[in-house]
Structure formats: structure tokens, C-alpha cells
Specification:
The chain is α/β, with parallel strands linked by helices. Helix content is about 35%, strand content about 20%. The chain has an 8-stranded parallel β-barrel with strand order 3-4-5-6-7-8-11-12, surrounded by 7 helices. A two-stranded antiparallel sheet has the order 1-2. It has a two-stranded antiparallel sheet with strand order 9-10.
């Protein structure tokens, strides 16, 4: 990719992503308004998931933004075998399907193994490939072959331009609906940093870009149950900076009471703070002349 002075006026690819649901068609990418992927880190209980989904739908309707509900039926990359990993595919996917059936919104969850892909595709609208697994060719191709939408989180170990290779793998099996997510890069041990250049660089790869500030501020190596395991103070700053840089979509894990969450409690945004933050983000987006 050319990032010289002469490339300043280059045209960005016509990156597009769309999902048709009971509530209409959600479009993300060039020429479309800012969208949101949000929900608790992991499926803790049906009661919690349904309550958060209802609140997110209310916020999305009030603000007029597109919404994809996110929660993981399994979190396989935990720091200890004793940590909560979720209810698993059989029970977790049914709860996510209930969200879709009840509120008419698309649902997204992480896929960790090739053998889980086909079952997950029966229930989910978007298959998410975790950052640690974005280079696993077999998993990437299996997700792409389902015909479902795919969100790939950029590995902490990759330069943003290297996501072109992941995108090419998905395109090779006919996947057209693809999102690429920026969630930080390794900076020394246990800490991630956000290179805001990742947003336009991955957009130049040819897919809409999602920005995940709630994982960037995790301090790895410290349990997520430890108050020192994250720096949520910076979530609003990073999120608004990403909107100013032109991200197509925001990824914000959220929970009514993060201090009681069973996973990533120190990095999730408190649910009550989501709507005020999104109002600020939409104001920034409007100031930049984006569709609203």
C-alpha cells in the first residue's frame, strides 16, 4: 500500500456490508451511517442477555442507528481453566437465537473451532473469528464457506495491512459480507495500544472496519475479575477518536454491572454510559458530514 504524500487523494474501495432482518436492512460501510456491535462479553444467563438486548434495541431505536447484538457462547481464550467460559454452543446459541427472534436484530458470537462452524451458522447472523485465531486458515475458510457474514478481529500480532491476506482467504470461498475489527496491537508485555491508522489501512483492504475500544484497554496477564485488569476510563476517548478517524462501526462490550460480570468485567462499558457516549459519537460523525 502507498501511504506517501502523493496518495492523499486516493479513492477508498466501495466497502459494503449488509444484513437483512425482521427490522429491515442494516448497512455498514462507505456511504452509510455509523453502526454498533454491542452486548455482554459472554452469555452469563438468559435473563441478563434478554435484558441487555432490550436496552440496546431501545437505544438503537432512539438514536436511529443499526445494531448487531454480540455475546460469546464460549470464551476459549481464558487465562485459567477455572475461569468461566460460557454455557457452550448448545445452550448459548439458543439464547442468542431468542434475542434475534424476540427483537428482530442480528446476532454475533465467536467461533473457536472448525467443528463448531456449521452449528453456529444455523443460529447466528455473523460469525466472529477471534483475534488469536485470525490466521487459522482452516477456520477462516470454514466460516467463509457457510455464506454467513463474517467479522474478523485483527490479531494483536499483525500489522493492519496484513488483514488483506485474511480478507483474500474469505473472498476465495465466496464470502462477500466481511467486517474487519481493530482491537489493538501488542506493546510490550500485557498491554495493547491503538494505532488509529489501522482504520483507514484496513478500509483500503476493501472491507468496512469496526473499532473495538473495550478490548484495547484490557491489561492482559491480570485476571479480568481484578479491578486492575483494565482501564475503562479510556473507552470514551478511544471510541470518539475512532469515529473522528472514520471507522464504519463501533464494537462496545457492555454490561449493567461490569464489576459482577463473569468475564472482562474490568473492560466492559457500563450499560448506562452507552447511550451518552453514542450521542457524542453521532455528533462527531455528523460534524464530519457523514450520513445520519
Amino acid at each position: 500500500m502507498d501511504f506517501s504524500r502523493e496518495s492523499l487523494n486516493q479513492e477508498f474501495p466501495d466497502r459494503q456490508f449488509s444484513l437483512t432482518t425482521k427490522r429491515g436492512t442494516l448497512k455498514i460501510g462507505k456511504g452509510h451511517e455509523l453502526a454498533l456491535i454491542a452486548g455482554p462479553c459472554v452469555v452469563e444467563s438468559e435473563e441478563l442477555i434478554m435484558a441487555v438486548a432490550k436496552r440496546l434495541v431501545d437505544i438503537a431505536d432512539h438514536l436511529g442507528i443499526g445494531l448487531i447484538f454480540k455475546s460469546s457462547y464460549e470464551k476459549d481464550n481464558r487465562g485459567s481453566e477455572k475461569n468461566y467460559r460460557g454455557p457452550g454452543a448448545e445452550d448459548g446459541l439458543k439464547i442468542l437465537k431468542k434475542v434475534r427472534d424476540t427483537y428482530g436484530i442480528p446476532v454475533l458470537s465467536d467461533i473457536h473451532r472448525e467443528e463448531d462452524v456449521n452449528l453456529s451458522a444455523e443460529y447466528l447472523d455473523v460469525l466472529q473469528i477471534p483475534a488469536y485465531l485470525c490466521q487459522q486458515t482452516g477456520l477462516v475458510l470454514a466460516c467463509g464457506k457457510t455464506g454467513k457474514a463474517v467479522n474478523v478481529k485483527k490479531g494483536q500480532f499483525l500489522a493492519p495491512e496484513n488483514m488483506k491476506g485474511v480478507l483474500n482467504k474469505l473472498r476465495s470461498v465466496g464470502a462477500k459480507n466481511v467486517l474487519l475489527t481493530e482491537r489493538g496491537a501488542s506493546f510490550g508485555y500485557n498491554r495493547l495500544v491503538s494505532d488509529i491508522r489501522s482504520i483507514p489501512i484496513m478500509q483500503l483492504c476493501g472491507a468496512p472496519v469496526v473499532y473495538d475500544s473495550t478490548h484495547i484497554i484490557r491489561l492482559y496477564g491480570i485476571p479480568s475479575s481484578d479491578p486492575k485488569g483494565g482501564e475503562p476510563f479510556f473507552v470514551p476517548h478511544l471510541t470518539k477518536a475512532a469515529v473522528a478517524a472514520g471507522t464504519d462501526c463501533l464494537f462496545l462490550e457492555t454490561h449493567p454491572t461490569p464489576n459482577t460480570a463473569l468475564c472482562d468485567g474490568t473492560s466492559m462499558l457500563q450499560l448506562d454510559l452507552l447511550e451518552p457516549l453514542m450521542k457524542q459519537c453521532l455528533a462527531i460523525s455528523k460534524a464530519l458530514g457523514r450520513p445520519n
